[in-house]
Structure formats: C-alpha cells, structure tokens
Amino acid sequence: MSMTTFFGFLNKSIRLAIAVALILMVGFVFANVVLRYAFNSGLTWSSEVARYLFVWVVFLGSILAVVEHSHLGVDILARHVPGWLQKSFFLLATALTVAVMTLVVKGLLVLIELNVGITGPATDIPINNYYYAGMVAAVLMSVVMAYQAISFVLTGRNGPTWANDHDVEPRL
Questions:
Q1: Strand, helix or coil at 126?
Q2: Predicted confidence (pLDDT) per residue in 20-70, tens digit
C-alpha cells in the first residue's frame, strides 16, 4: 500500500469517525434534554459519554488539520523566501513540532499510568480514554508531518500552502 493510499484511507476513516461521534453526541444530549423536560427523568450517562466523544472529535479533527495543512501559522516571512529556504523552514518547523509531540506522548504515558483503574462516575468507562485520544493524535500527527516534510524536501509535493507562492503580490 502506498503512502498516498494510506493517507487517503486515514482521512476517510477519521472523517467517518468524527461524523459518527458528532451524531452520537447530538443524539445523546438531545435525548437527555427531552427526557428531562418531557418525562422528568434523564440519562445519567449521556453527558459523560458526550464529553468522551467530544475529546475524541477534537483530537481526530487535529489530525485532519495536519493532513490538510489547515492549522494556523504565520507565513509572512516563509512565503517570500527562495524555495530551498522554504523547505528548510518547513523541515525545522516539522522537527520542532514532532519534538513537542514526543513530549506530549511522554506526558500522556505518565497520566495514563497515574489514572489506571479510575473510571467515570456514571459509565465506568476508564478516564484514560481522554489520554488515549491525545496519544493517537500526537502519534498520527507526527507520522503525517514527518511524511509531508520529507516529501516536500525531496519532491516539492505535500508542502504547506505558502510554499513556492512567489507570484502573490504583498498585501498592505
């Protein structure tokens, strides 16, 4: 399987997971509101499950943002330098980001170890699911960024949106 096929599959899988999670979140919260106001009862677990789903949606969305180069960035300097320097900037930014993701993973491993056996009060779902979402996101974002950086440096493809954008006139 080529990397393009893998990233296409990853992109579609994450989009599907986000869509399902959003539908479940809205359904659980809506059902809880209806039950509370119409029947004077409720689902004790719905807000807790919605919170877990929300955390996963945020982290999965951050992976998609990396794949699509949609994260915010300041490109005022990078877009106006030669291509070789753009590649150097992108490689440096990627290396720093992957280093930070490594620190995030180390911190999450500590949190996972500290919270073993602790569960949510209404669902008995392990609290570590919050940290697993961050772990999955940090690892996948690092893999995607490393691939994009190597591909951009070696082939000029998969670069950031500001790369090789020398035809644009500066705006005042």
A1: strand
A2: 999 999 999 999 999 988 888 888 888 889 999 999 999 999 999 998 888
What does the pLDDT look like over 23-32, one tens digit per residue? 999 999 999 9
Q: How many CB atoms lie within 10 A of CB 87?
A: 19
Is residue 41 within 8 Å of 35, Cβ to Cβ? Answer: yes
What totals of helices (H) and strands (E) does the chain contain, helices first?
4, 0
What is the mean pLDDT of the segment spanning 80-87? 84
The domain limits of the chain are 3-155
Query: Which residue in this structure is represented by tokens 């990078």?
Result: 78
Report yes or no on whether pTM surpasses 0.85.
no
User: How far apart are alpha carbons 82 and 69 in whole angstroms?
Assistant: 20
Burial 104-138 (b: 16+ CB within 10 A, else e): bbeebeeebeeeeeeebeeeeebbbebbebbbebb
DSSP conformational letter for 117: T
Residues 6+ apart with CB under 8 A from 138: 101, 104, 105, 108
* Residues 92 and 149 sit within 8 Å (Cβ to Cβ): no
Would you call 67 exposed, middle or buried from its count of C-beta atoms within 10 A (0-12, 13-18, 19+)? buried
